[in-house]
């Protein structure tokens, strides 16, 4: 997150059904998160904020949000309030009982939606396990499960995506986590689409 102009571009157009929060290195993360939360309060049924891999205490200290809060407020209290808030963000969302939305990807520890519902998500994301996988995993051209080059989560092939969708009566996985230049990319045709809506990345 942190890209207020990009966010306002989408807000002016229409209030989105599913909104993903992405922490980043720009200096307007406080404003961007605050605006999203305010919109969620004002339009609770029209906006869903999902937790991503950067909505954690550890990552926000590495990528600038912690320092931004110190510069703007002189102490870490606001940062603590925000990171406590992140613990309440859902990790996944289901649209019309057909479209499965999340930040990262699938997990070898999760076969059904009930497995996800049973997770204790009200915590700092762990470094491994199903919650970590949902935030960090990526689709891959190779079949099966693979070791993620990110050092967290897994890579998963189209066969994994198809099996997950079939077992849960779903039609599509919508995820983020990777920049795609056209705004969306069919990572696995007709199964997994990667969506990236930030329009002010690297000054472009």
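Q: What amino acid sequence fits the structure above?
A:
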């Amino acid at each position: 997150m942190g890209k207020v102009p990009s966010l306002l571009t989408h807000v002016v157009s229409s209030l989105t059904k599913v909104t993903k929060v992405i922490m980043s290195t720009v200096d307007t993360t406080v404003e961007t998160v605050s605006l999203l939360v305010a919109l969620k309060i004002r339009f609770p049924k029209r906006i869903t904020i999902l937790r991503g891999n950067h909505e954690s205490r550890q990552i926000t200290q590495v990528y600038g949000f912690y320092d931004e809060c110190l510069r703007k407020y002189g102490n870490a209290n606001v940062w603590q309030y925000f990171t406590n808030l992140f613990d309440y963000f859902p990790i996944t969302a289901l649209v019309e009982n057909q479209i499965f939305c999340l930040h990262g990807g699938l997990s070898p520890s999760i076969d059904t939606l009930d497995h996800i519902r049973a997770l204790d998500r009200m915590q700092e994301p762990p470094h491994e396990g199903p919650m970590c996988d949902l935030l960090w995993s990526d689709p891959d051209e190779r079949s099966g499960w693979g070791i993620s080059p990110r050092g967290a989560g897994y890579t998963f092939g189209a066969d994994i995506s198809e099996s997950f969708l079939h077992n849960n009566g779903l039609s599509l996985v919508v995820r983020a986590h990777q920049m795609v230049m056209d705004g969306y990319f069919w990572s696995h045709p007709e199964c997994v689409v990667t969506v990236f809506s930030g329009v002010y990345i690297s000054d472009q």
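Q: And what stands out in the fold?
A: The helical segments are 4-13, 29-42, 57-62, 65-73, 77-86, 113-117, 130-136, 158-168.
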